[in-house]
Amino acid sequence: MATNTLNAPATNTNPFVAAVYFVPTGASTIKSVGSTFQANGTNSIFCDSTNIDSSDVIWSHVNIGLTSSTDSAGPCFVNSAGDGFQAIANGTNTRLFTCTAGVLGGSVLATRGGDPADNTIVSLKLTKSTKRFEIYYNMVLQGLVFDYLGSIPANLRGGLCMRGAGQTKQLVVEWTPANTVVSINGGADITQGQTGIGAVLTGFGGAITSIPTDQAGIATSGIAGSTNAPTFNISGWAEGQPYPILPVETSFTFTRSGESAAGTETVNYPAGWAKITFSAPVIDDSNFIGKWIADQGHTVDGGEYYNQSYGDLVVGADSGVEVTNGGTFPSWFRPVSGATAGNMYFFQVTVTDGGAVVVVTSGLKGESIKASAIRAKKIKSSKFF
User: Is the Cα dihedral 12, 13, 19, 21 positive or negative?
Assistant: First the structure.
């Protein structure tokens, strides 16, 4: 659980930076909460500024001083309008009330007989899912356990309440922060196979242990970094292994013991690469990439082809190549149908000036495809003029 401890110097000003402070009509406007016990005036509430609705179980702990029938104090939960619940120790007992705009309202919800001794920490615990309130003295559960039948106000904050010369000296609010994903990779696309990807999270109480994704073939590894600022790697294209068509919106779920939060980011192919979907590709002419891919047993039509670009290189939907100057470039192919559908396959392609394909190697080992096809190839003149 997270905690906020408010323990300010004893001054005649509101000591809580950005805190919510309620002064009901007729109450003194000079209030203080300090490191020593302070009498805080009539019917006032100090409230921590943090919204603790992210947690089902919330605590407000208040260190109270001497109380009496007219001078009382205790913990509370209220929202920014001052609506909520107060637990008041008054010299005789501790009672749980509802409150509206910071003022006690309605009848007493529950009473615990016997006043806490001077310098006792009185704690109010609320489990919102069951609407159960519990009172503790120095973290020992007392007889006051109450199941509320009404509605619990939203946007609650932990606080302390005082009446008359009731004395308090410290407030501690305890809750479990919301687990959220603020950003992944700074909001920029993630490249397949990228390492050292950073994420910004909130609310986690320890190091992230796993980051599953919703895409087959995209796995994470190498989780490092700090509790709410992890780093990780993602898998890249691998020969004969599944990978989704890129770019793809991918959900990453950051998890550790009992905590998780998901965020999405786009996984994309590398910068400087191009993608083409083959449509009616030529698969019977070795001047075309489609022929070389088909010879490896892949269904070419409809498949996704990614290639590293250089100069004015363009690979067309028919799998033909247009380029002024010949060269060699790496590429990957992903069939969408047939026996090898959904998997990635590497091809390194060498073309002449004008784009006639002369050599293709397959797989990451760089084995040439069917040398006999190379010897039999006739280069079409249209590729050069």
Answer: positive
**pLDDT value at 155 more than 80:** yes
- Are residues 125 and 33 both part of a single domain? yes
How many CB atoms neighbour CB 184 within 10 A?
24
Residues 56 and 143 in one domain: yes
The answer to whether residues 257 and 285 belong to one domain is no
Strand partners, 3: 174
| Band of residue 25 on the pLDDT scale cut at 50, 70, 90 | very low
> What whole-number distance in Å separates Cα of residue 136 and Cα of residue 140?
5
Give me the torsion for CA of 279, 280, 281, 282, rounded to 10°.
-170
The domain tally of the chain equals 3
Phi, psi at 72, each rounded to 5°: -140, 165
User: How many Å apart are CA 121 and CA 113, to the nearest integer?
Assistant: 16
DSSP, residue by residue, 310-357: -TT-EE-TTS-EE-SS-EEEEEEEE-SSSTTTTBBEEEEEEE-TT--E
pLDDT digits (tens, 9 = 90+) for 169-215: 677 788 777 788 999 999 999 999 999 999 999 888 889 999 999 99
Phi, psi of 267 (to 5 degrees): -100, 130
Q: What CA–CA distances, in Å, run from 122 to 59, 141, 262, 347?
A: 10, 10, 37, 71
CB-based contacts of 184, cutoff 8 Å, min separation 6 = 190, 197, 198, 199, 252, 263, 264, 265
Strand, helix or coil at 147? strand
pTM of the model: 0.64
Q: Are residues 244 and 318 in the same domain?
A: no
Same domain, 147 and 239: no
Single-letter amino acid code for the residue at 236: G
pLDDT digits (tens, 9 = 90+) for 54-101: 788 888 888 887 666 667 888 889 887 778 898 988 878 888 999 877
227 φ, ψ (degrees, to nearest 5): -50, -55
Is 361 within 8 Å of 369 (Cβ atoms)?
yes
Domain span holding position 374: 273-383
Residues 97 and 226 in one domain: no
Contact 340, 334 (CB under 8 A): no
Pairing of strands 140-147, 38-39: unpaired
User: Do 227 and 290 lie in a common domain?
Assistant: no
Least confident of 116-130, 219-233, 323-337: 116-130
